[in-house]
């Protein structure tokens, strides 16, 4: 007779998953730079679920772990983004330098990812500039942050020399980190985000184009999503 190995698999699986939770919890508890209460609660809930479902099928346990791990990674991603602007400085069009964490408070923030000197990117910028200027003319709290080239190891040519939006001091590591956090795969891209890192507008380029005659309306819709 073939022994029933599922209880053994379950116990081994739960043991390793619990170890994963334990190690993750320990690492986060030592992290004083973030508010980790949300993800610590997720870990406790996941661990409790496992202990109460140790007789469930092996596949169900695996599926639960996959779901909970994805949720935790998303929470971690938001934690990283929430503190992303710490120690980052923004440059304005007058060569002024600003602390990003302070300067971006209470503002609707759109991040534009450049594709270097691509003609498509060059065609987008005038429309984005017109949109940006229309919002700023109405004295709305809106900023576009121009993030440098994602396709080259060299700093790109300045594509926004006549625009008034902000830039980040060139740092390819920072650029790659930003692109990864906001899931930018094919620049150019424009993302509008909440302050916790949630993307409220994933395809800002299309939104700006479709609302060329109603920039304030689009801005207000973004603002409503951010502050609800």
3D structure, described in words:
- The protein has two domains: 77 residues, no CATH class; 138 residues, Glutaredoxin (3-Layer(aba) Sandwich), CATH 3.40.30.
- The protein is of the alpha/beta class and 228 residues long.
- The N terminus is likely disordered.
- Helix 1 packs antiparallel against helix 2, helix 1 runs parallel beside helix 3 and helix 2 runs antiparallel to helix 3.
- The longest helix is centred in the N-terminal third of the chain and has 25 residues.
- 51% of the residues lie in helices and 13% in strands.
- A seven-stranded mixed beta sheet has the order 2-1-5-4-3-6-7.
- Strand 3, helix 5 and strand 4 form a beta-alpha-beta unit.
- The protein is elongated.
- It holds the Pfam family Thioredoxin_8.
Concise structural overview:
The protein is an alpha/beta fold. It has 2 domains: 6-82, no CATH class; 89-226, 3-Layer(aba) Sandwich (Glutaredoxin), CATH 3.40.30. It has helices at residues 6-29, 37-52, 58-82, 100-103, 119-137, 172-181, 204-210, 215-226, and strands at 89-91, 97-99, 108-113, 142-147, 166-168, 189-193, 199-201.
- What structural class do helix, strand and pairing data support? alpha/beta
CATH fold descriptor of the largest domain: Glutaredoxin
CATH architecture of the largest domain: 3-Layer(aba) Sandwich
Strand order of the largest sheet: 2-1-5-4-3-6-7
Mean pLDDT: 73
N-to-C terminal Cα separation, in Å? 60 Å
Q: Assign the CATH superfamily of the largest domain.
A: Glutaredoxin
Rg on CA atoms, Å: 22 Å
Uncertain runs are 1-10, 153-158
Which CATH C-level class of the largest domain is it? Alpha Beta
Number of contiguous helices: 8
Question: What's the number of domains?
Answer: 2
Fraction of residues in β-strands: 5-15%
Shape: elongated
Organism: Panagrellus redivivus
Protein name: protein-disulfide reductase
Domain Thioredoxin-like fold: 106-199
Keywords: NAD, Oxidoreductase, Repeat
């Amino acid at each position: 007779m073939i022994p029933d190995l599922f209880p053994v698999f379950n116990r081994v699986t739960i043991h390793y998953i619990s170890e994963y939770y334990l190690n993750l919890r320990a690492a986060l508890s030592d992290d004083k730079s973030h508010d980790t209460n949300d993800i610590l609660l997720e870990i406790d809930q996941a661990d409790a679920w496992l202990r109460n479902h140790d007789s469930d099928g092996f596949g169900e346990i695996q599926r639960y772990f996959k779901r909970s791990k994805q949720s935790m990674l998303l929470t971690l991603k938001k934690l990283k983004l929430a503190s992303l602007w710490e120690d980052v400085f923004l440059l304005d069009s007058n060569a002024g330098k600003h602390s990003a964490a302070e300067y971006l408070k209470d503002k609707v923030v759109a991040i534009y990812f450049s594709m270097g000197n691509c003609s498509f990117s060059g065609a987008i910028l005038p429309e984005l500039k017109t949109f940006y200027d229309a919002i700023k003319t109405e004295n709305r709290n809106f900023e576009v942050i121009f993030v440098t080239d994602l396709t080259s190891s060299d700093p790109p040519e300045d594509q926004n020399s006549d625009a008034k939006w902000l830039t980040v001091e060139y740092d390819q590591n920072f650029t790659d980190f930003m692109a990864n956090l906001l899931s930018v795969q094919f620049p150019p891209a424009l993302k509008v985000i909440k302050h916790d890192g949630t993307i409220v507008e994933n395809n800002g380029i299309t939104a700006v184009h479709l609302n060329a005659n109603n920039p304030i309306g689009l801005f207000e819709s973004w603002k409503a999503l951010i502050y609800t």
